[in-house]
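Appendix B. One record, verbatim.
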Amino acid sequence: MALTDRMIQTGPNLGMPHTKAMGDGLFELRVKAEEGIARISYCAVVKREIVILHAFVKKTQATPKNELKIAVKRLNEVIKND
C-alpha cells in the first residue's frame, strides 16, 4: 500500500521509519532515493488535507535548524490563513 493511501486511512502520522512527529502539528516524511535522503515537512489541516511545507535533501544526521525554521514559518502561515 502506498504511503499516501495509508495517510488517507490512518492520518498524517504513520510512525517511524516513514514519518516523524516534530511537534505542534508539524510532521516529517522520510524518503530515500538515489540522490540521497530527503525530508519533507508537512502538516494536516481541516478535512484531512495534507499541506507540503518544505522539502530538502538531508546532508547531516540531524535536521538543520534553518530547514526546520522554514517549515515552522510556513506552518504558522497555514494556521493563520485557515
